[in-house]
Amino acid sequence: MKELLAQLTAAWGPPGREQAVAAAIADLIRPYVDEVRTDALGNLLAVRRPRGAAGTGAARKLLLVAHMDAPGGIVTGYTDRGQLRFAPVGGLSLVAAWGQRVRFADGRLGVLGGEPVDDPKEVKLQNCWVDIGARSREEAEAWVRAGEFFVLHGELTELGSRWAGPALDNRAGCAAIIAALRRLGDSPWEVHLAFTVQGQVAPRGARTATYQVRPDLAVVVDATPAEGKEGAAARLGAGPALRLKDGGWALRPAARAALERAAAAAGVQWQPEVLPTGSTEAAGVQSVEEGVPTGVLGIPLRYRGTPAEVVDPGDLEGAVAWLHALMSQEPAPELGTGAAGGA
Amino acid sequence: MDLALLRELTEAVGTPGREEPVRAILRRYLEGHVDELRTDALGNLIARKGSGPVRVLLDGHMDEVGLLVSGFTPEGYLQFKKSGGIDDRVLPGRAVWVGPSRLPGVIGLRAPHLSRGEKEPRAVPARELVIDIGARSREEAMALCDYGDPVVWATRLEEFGPYGIKAKALDNRVGCALAAEIIRHAEVKNISLYAVFAVQEEIGLRGARVAARQVSPHVALALECTSCGEGPGVSPPETVTLLGKGPALSWMDGTAIVPEGLRRHLEALAERAGIPYQYRTLTTAGTDAGQIHLARAGVPTAVVSVPCRYIHSGAGLIHRQDYEGALALVRLFVESIEKGEYRP
Questions:
Q1: How many angstroms separate the first and last alpha carbons of chain A?
Q2: Which residues of B are catalytic?
Q3: Which chain B residues touch A87 with a CB distance below 8 Å?
Q4: Under CATH, domain B3-64+168-338 is a member of which superfamily?
């Protein structure tokens, strides 16, 4: 798992520029799926048809969603001293990124810095820049064009019994799906995988991917804030989180039953979680066309939006076992039909 | 450029949800010059030319930011609410047109002798302002206009300086005029060219969302008028765009990230034809592209804008050559797909 995670976190992919991540994932999943393709917005979509003693009739569709993009920034201009003006793209924390390395598509490194400040509250976009070591504006303009994107630079390292690295939100989610797929045997579902674009920004890729699949059940796999403020309930190391509600979506009984049944079958210890604000791609997925029963499986993560996000291997392993059980189990008859709406 | 068209469009009254006069002008301009022209359930005007397999969408929203009449005072003043993003500071003392027939009015201003005692000059909140149409009673006022009537700036288009065009509602009658000029004169065999004149962009990209679903294009351009922050002491990138430096291409905004390949194609077309272009250096706010690119299975969508000083105020200013550049660039874009040089 660590090797998979290291490979995925090394891929360059800010919001809207996920091609390298998609290419890496495509190579990883190709042996395990029947179809894999990239769509108009850059989502990587894959299908694994039912295996084993599947029933007759059309198979039910399960869609697993994980966004591929990581927080970054875009170059908007230059200072006279040869630094780059920029704007954040996705959930980049200026305070946390201050003094850290960033990386452009061609591998060029920069340092996100700015005017020296004593109080982190004074770190504002207007007094920050990216320093690429250029000695003049002309040099900077020749090296990096305005409009180019960058990501936070760093590598995955062990941190005691945990892992730290950039882009774990949400390459951890991507990795969990890939690892579960690799060990999947028989499955009654037509399993669809959507590794989506721009999930850091809004549920954009997730929405258009879901439109193409029209699943009976969708599960969004995403990093979730561990021990955060605003009373977020998830704790690092306490298992993957079953999200009950957030600022854009609420778990309904049909999806909850499917997820709880799978967790029980796999013996996964999970934790319930409610977020008063914020949301995942589930907010977009659930309202595509006639509506989609949607669950959110959270992977607890500390220090979101920094080059050293921290996850717990046990939580990830739990997520893998959970997704594996979900893909393996018979779909409940009522899922994806009007009956799932309940009384 | 067809200045008569832009004049007629900018002088029309067309606030969000009340785009009828703008739609009528565009209908008249396009009738007989396109293969299909229809208005959908929300009021979007959708034109099509050609019936080839590749569907190309050009979007320009018809609505402008404005006000709407929300009530009448016993003295005959009109109370109003904003429809779209307008800065309170630009309201007091401005001449306006009320309703589609352009009834003249003025947004009342506290007389100088009454505001003299105030310690600090302040922007009077919009809720404290009223519109004076010369009525002396509620009954007189209600005989002249109605609840919900649109209110816009009373501004005529004027050319000034060698290149300047001053008007209200350049955001986004510029986009409408560009799309209308292009589809009216386009010659297409291999593609289906659609122009969508969308409603309610200013209050949430609403028309474009349903129009893009109907057209289901393979590629789309949102044609816009975007902010130019030029003024004393403002330098790039805070200016966002510069007047006279050509059409502005967007990298991203708050509602969409433009695919790099599509933007590079536009850049290559401009460079080959010697059309100057620039980048819009703001990464926030939004356009109809925000909804178009999410239609159905997703649509690669770019944004081409004409820079405008004093946007969302009573008198915006654009540069004629920026409009001409946008017109030429978008024409080349359509041609490149028609000729199969670019396959979306």
A1: 43
A2: 201
A3: 283-284
A4: Zn peptidases (3.40.630.10)
State how far the Cα of A341 lies from the Cα of A332, in Å rounded to an integer.
13
DSSP string, B252-278: B-SS-B--HHHHHHHHHHHHHHT---E
Specify the pLDDT at position A218.
98
Nearest CA in chain A to B344: A40
- Give residues with Cβ within 8 angstroms of A60, minimum separation 6: A188, A189, A190, A216, A217, A331, A335, A336
> What is the nearest CA distance from B280 to chain A, expressed in angstroms?
9
Token digits for A282?
A: 């589930």
Cis bond before residue B237 (omega within 30° of 0):
yes
Q: Domain residue spans in chain B?
A: 3-64+168-338, 66-153
Which of A76, A201, A208 lies closest to B298 in CB terms?
A: A208
The b/e string for B36-73 (b: 16+ C-beta within 10 A; e otherwise) is: ebeebebbbbbbbbbeeebbbbbbbbbbbbbbbbeebe
Please list every residue in chain A whose beta carbon sits closer than 8 Å to the beta carbon of residue B253: none
CB–CB of B259 and A42 under 8 A? Answer: yes
The overall average pLDDT reported for chain A is 93
Q: For residue B172, give the nearest of B295, B335, B26 by alpha carbon.
A: B26
pLDDT digits (tens, 9 = 90+) for A35-67: 999 999 999 999 999 998 655 667 899 999 999
Mutate to test the interface with A, among B205, B218, B251, B271 (most CBs of A within 10 A): B251
* Closest approach of B229 to chain A, Cα-based (Å): 15
pLDDT of A341 strictly over 60: no
Percent of all residues in chain B with a pLDDT value above 90, rounded to a whole number: 91
* Residue A208 to residue B294, Cβ atoms within 8 A: yes
Q: What is the pLDDT of residues A119-148, one digit of tens each?
A: 888 899 989 999 999 999 999 999 999 999
Token couple for A9: 């976190």
Per DSSP bridges, beta strands A162-165 and A190-196 are: unpaired
Residue written as token pair 């301009």: B29
B151-170 residue pLDDT tens: 999 999 999 889 999 999 99
Task: List CB contacts (< 8 A) between A211 and chain B.
Answer: 296-298
The distance of A149 to chain B (nearest Cα, Å) reads 10
pLDDT in tens, B98-134: 998 999 999 998 787 777 666 666 778 899 999 999 9
Domain B66-153 has CATH 2.40.30.40: yes
Q: Which residues contact A30 (CB under 8 A, 6 or more apart)?
A: A36
DSSP string for B10-74:
HHS--BTTB-HHHHHHHHHHHTTTSSEEEE-TT--EEEEE---SEEEEEEEE----EEEEEEE-T
Query: Residue A339: pLDDT above 80?
Result: no
Per the CB < 8 Å rule, is A74 touching B298? Answer: no
Query: Which residues of chain A have a Cβ shorter than 8 Å from any chain B Cβ?
Result: 15-17, 39-43, 74, 76-77, 85, 87, 89, 146-147, 198, 201, 204-205, 207-208, 211-212
pLDDT of residue A117: 87
Angle at B258 between CA B257 and CA B260, to 5 degrees: 120
Using a CB-CB cut-off of 8 Å, the residues of chain B touching A201 are 257
Q: Which residue ranges form the domains of chain A, and what is each CATH number?
A: 2-70+166-341 (3.40.630.10), 72-152 (2.40.30.40)
Which of A41, A85, A87 is closest, CB to CB, to B293?
A: A41
Q: Tell me the nearest-neighbour CA distance from B335 into chain A, angstroms.
A: 21
Please give, rounded to a whole number of angstroms, the shortest distance from the CA of B12 to a CA of chain A. 35
Contact assignment for A147 to B279 by CB distance below 8 Å:
yes
